[in-house]
């Protein structure tokens, strides 16, 4: 009799403890048990919800290329206190030279030519690859975006660079594919821990932003 009462009491205490843990988890926003993503349909992002065609993937890549490139240029102008001189920095005369003269070999720093530009190229490559494009399409997209950057975005400030037109898509695609394969490996179990979330956020920030920083959605993506 005493054993039965003790067992009933322990069972009741255990149930209360589980209930309290569940309530605490709901209040703090942390799940009581780690849950893997349920693989159903591809999750939708916060914009460009349809990226099934080449044209839509190109449009999506432009939505990444233009704001990030212009934002980077504005940051440099602000840092160099040249924001008030934009009318003299970006000129129609320079654009005319850009489209009438051949590109030149620039002498920018190694960190810029072989660091910043490959990273920019990787963003363009991943914009396609993340949306289920074949690597060949992603490479072609990175090459096109490199030309768009050199001629349309930066073409009003400087002559297009031969080495940037070559390095950005080639090294950018190699870097981008490496990031893509790493992400696939991290998502193999359809679960991300804190370190893995940080790694994906740093290496592929636009994909994380596309899903509104909801890593549970990224876990559901079926990367090809």
Ranges with pLDDT <50 over ≥5 residues? 1-40
DSSP strand tally: 0
Radius of gyration: 25 Å
Terminal residue distance: 62 Å
> Helical residue percent?
55-70%
> How many helices?
10
Name the shape in a single word.
elongated
| Coarse structural class | mainly alpha
Range of strand content: under 5%
Overall structural domain count: 2
What is the overall pLDDT average?
A: 85
Order of helices and strands: HHHHHHHHHH
Largest sheet: none
Protein traits:
10 helices; 2 domains; 224 residues; disordered N terminus; elongated; mainly alpha
Descriptive report:
The chain has 224 residues and is mainly α. The protein contains ten helices and no strands.
Please specify the SSE layout and strand pairing.
Layout: H1 2-28, H2 54-79, H3 86-89, H4 92-100, H5 110-129, H6 135-153, H7 162-186, H8 194-203, H9 205-210, H10 215-218
């Amino acid at each position: 009799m005493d054993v039965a009462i003790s067992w009933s009491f322990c069972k009741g205490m255990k149930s209360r403890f589980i209930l309290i843990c569940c309530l605490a988890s709901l209040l703090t926003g942390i799940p009581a048990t780690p849950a893997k993503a349920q693989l159903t349909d591809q999750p939708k992002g916060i914009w460009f919800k349809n990226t099934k065609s080449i044209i839509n993937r190109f449009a999506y890549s432009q939505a990444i290329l233009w704001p990030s490139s212009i934002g980077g240029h504005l940051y440099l102008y602000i840092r160099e206190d040249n924001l008030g001189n934009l009318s003299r920095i970006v000129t129609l005369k320079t654009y005319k030279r850009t489209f009438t003269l051949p590109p030149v070999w620039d002498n920018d720093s190694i960190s810029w030519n072989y660091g910043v530009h490959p990273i920019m190229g990787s963003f363009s490559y991943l914009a396609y690859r993340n949306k289920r494009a074949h690597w060949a399409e992603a490479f072609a997209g990175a090459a096109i975006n490199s030309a768009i950057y050199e001629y349309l975005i930066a073409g009003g400030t400087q002559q297009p660079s031969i080495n940037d037109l070559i390095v950005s898509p080639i090294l950018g695609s190699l870097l981008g594919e490496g990031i893509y394969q790493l992400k696939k490996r991290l998502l193999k179990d359809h679960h991300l821990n804190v370190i893995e979330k940080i790694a994906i956020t740093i290496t592929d920030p636009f994909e994380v932003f596309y899903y509104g920083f909801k890593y549970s959605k990224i876990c559901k993506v079926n990367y090809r």
